[in-house]
User: Fold this.
Amino acid sequence: LGRETEVHMTLPLIGAIEAGGTKFVLAVARADGTILERSRLPTRNPGATMPQVVDFFRAAAGRHGPLAAIGIGSFGPLDIDPASPAYGTIGRTPKPGWSGASCRAWLAPLGLPMTIDTDVNAAALGEWLAGAGQGADTLAYTTVGTGIGTGVVHWGRPLGGFGHYEA
Assistant:
């Protein structure tokens, strides 16, 4: 193998979840963004959806190697304050069974460090890094899907804290 190939193959593996109102999109990628595997699941209740998520990452780690961390962009309302005991918990939502569901609790069996933010902040960051928002100091991203949300990125950092922006 050439040096470039060796370095590429040793990059840490990252798990990614886009938890939407109608579907979950799961991926395993190298730290440089190269996607090794992906899957799509319908969003049902947490008891039906989250075990499938855990199974996907366990199986993918068996095929590709251990994951270093996992990033989650989720529908909300969502507690996105890492200092909060409820960090990663979905608030009151019309989505059956999801009010009070904790992403951290459901994914704890994976034993991975995780970062959790809103799905729109994750999309805004993606646009800032590799899409229409490249070069912008501040970017606001609004989406209309199952719900309506806005994510804001300023100098590469999604904004939020106690809560997230509503539009």
In short: The radius of gyration is 16 Å. The longest strand covers residues 23-30. The chain has four helices and eight strands.
